[in-house]
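This section describes the prediction task in plain terms. A model, or a person checking by hand, is given the sequence of a single protein chain and must write out its three-dimensional structure as a string of tokens. No templates, partner chains or ligands are provided. The sample shown here is typical of the held-out split.
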Amino acid sequence: MGRSEKGTAASWEEVQRHSAYIRGKAVEQFIRLYQIVEDRACDVFKWGDETEYMMMRLDHKEKTARIILDNDEVVKDLEREDGHSEPRPSTWVVETPAHMVESLPWKPFTDTAADFASVEKNLFLRRRQLNAILQKRSPTTGRDEEDIGLCITAFPRSMCQNITERRGGIGGCQIPIFKDIATDIGKLDGPLSWNKKLKECTDPTLDSPLFALGVSATQVTVQGKDLGEARVLHDQLLPISPIMMALSAATPILHGYLTEWDCRWNVPRFACDCRTAPERGLEPLQDKSYRIPKSRFGTSIGYVSSKNASLNDVHFPYHEETYKQLSKEGIDCSLARYMARLFVQDPLYMLEEHLSQDASDIGHLQNFLMTNWQLVRLKVPPEEGDVGWRAEFRTMEVQLTDFEQAAYINFMILLTKAITALQLDFVIPISQTDANMDKAPLRDALQKQEFLFRVEPFLGVEERIVCEMSIDVIINGGLTTAGIEFPGLVPLVRRYLTTLELGENGFRPQMEGYLTLICDRAAGRVPTTAQWIRDFVQNHQEYQNDSAVTERTNYDLMKICNDISQGRVEALHLSPY
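The expected answer:
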């Protein structure tokens, strides 16, 4: 979500006072960096994942599960241990919420069969490393308590307060509680009971960006051979985003209640919305302000490739002065407008020690790049080294087991390879991707919703036919409502795999195991993690058909999730219906 930085956080009043200066310096930093890396080419395809873990303590005597708020010290211990292990499996970074850490592979993967096959083992080593540190740090581990790091989505610091202050008050995320036969919204108690005072609300509201930044995710980043290919991958992955969100759904519980959502995305989408009333269209615009149609944790500000510009059919304003400045420096219209849309937003934070920066610094630029959390992010290369232009895919939920994580990660990387090798084209109007994103987080969206998707997924097909399809058809292939056979994303990946001359024993069977899971989830033969969690709660002995997840239910759920993750018990959530 967002990483913690060292320094003295300035007050929101100070950030506002320096906002124009920070934006101006950020634009200058981008222009300088762009002129250095514009033509950077990369012959080797590289990629990686970012997997987030929640740290928690299971009290086996009291039957409770509590988060551990100590990520700074845990990451320091992980870094010390990493320095003595060879090969190093991972890099660890502190996330904004103190109970979360993020892991990355120590070095990028490539497109060799050995690297694809090593992902699951690498994830296993990361999780084992984190758990070993947590157990070593805990004085009570091994008796009645157990400290664990778990890939589960939902159980900050200055930037969170600034989101609220910029908006002009608490925004919040109104949660649609799942209405079971005994659910009574007026009698909800626990951490959300105060919301009964909000007469306009019928459901509880999360009132802080902290809640949004405290949900885990998996991101994958792919490096294009050059800027042009990175822009293509950015655009092609956008329509895939809602599909993979629903397919990886893992968040049916928020703050102690079953909800009408199966995914995390709407929590940061609403809770991290820092737009003012005029920007949201609720009050008249003030001087030099814009109507901004989406939260900065929204869907997308638009396609970045010039050939897809006509499909940017949702108006999103751009900072006109910045656009003129970028265009004057020779940056093409589509990229200049894409970047100028980022600079419509104000900077969200400022560290007092870093207000003045050297010409070679990119701190102010990162302030804008890292606080616009879209479905897919175009990532600018650093000045030094051989890292190229990249696209970051951001919508997948974390999975319980290393096998599942590896399946989703490998599938997405193989799909990006298929996109370039087979010249696939999934691009649809941005408004249609937005419509799909409204459906994707909903309860049982995988089985109950249909999504707008392009029927003829190949470049060169003149007529762009878009129709509604089930995720089963999108993933596995089948007849669409337009009466046209859609080939399916997994069959397209398999077609790409047949073009490779890899030769390594066991690679294809291992990849087929991952693809089978993706196919079975899409077809409803295997439940999503969200469906399995929901079933676990509703079949628990303490469940009163009232949507509430009790303390004991929470403990039992976290315990079995950990046991599954550690391989102590059978992965029941992977069993076919």
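For orientation: The first strand starts at residue 47 and ends at 59.
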